Amino acid sequence: MREKGSMPEVVIYTAVVEGFCKAQQFDGAVRKMQGSDIIPNAFSYGVLIRGICHGKRLENVLEFCMEILEDEHSPNLANLVMFVGLVDGFCEEKSLEEVQNMIKK
């Protein structure tokens, strides 16, 4: 598909990141996200955030949420749901103070 140009690169890239997450290879997913020449879009970030949330790697998820905000991806419903998921994950795993600090960030 890549050779025929029938699918945008970011779609293929996002599918690969999702595959790493489904295989619980979170470090591989992060490396793919950070080491690619392809600029992730909000959906790409969302796939990674959801995958890492399922792996209970909340600090990594917080970093990527901050990247989304810094890259000025406009919030959409999917991203807002993911941010809520991040808060829920922090509430389950962290202290109240850590949750409050994360929200302030």
Number of strands: 0
Task: Give the uncertain stretches in residue-range form.
Answer: none
Count of helix runs: 6
Radius of gyration: 14 Å
Tell me, briefly, the overall form: elongated
Helix content: over 70%
Query: Describe the biggest sheet?
Result: none
Overall SS class? mainly alpha
Query: Proportion of β residues?
Result: under 5%
Q: Span from first to last CA?
A: 40 Å
Mean pLDDT metric: 77
Helix and strand pattern = HHHHHH
PPR repeats: 41-75
InterPro entries: PPR_rpt, TPR-like_helical_dom_sf
Protein name: Pentatricopeptide repeat-containing protein
Keywords: Repeat
Characterization of the model:
The chain is mostly helical and 105 residues long. It has 6 helices and no strands. α1 runs parallel beside α3, α3 packs parallel to α5 (77-93) and α4 (58-70) runs antiparallel to α5. The longest helix has 17 residues, at 77-93. The termini are far apart.
Brief summary:
This protein is mainly α and 105 residues long.
Chart the SSEs and their pairings.
Blueprint (H helix, E strand, L loop, with lengths): L8 H14 L3 H9 L7 H13 L3 H13 L6 H17 L2 H9 L1
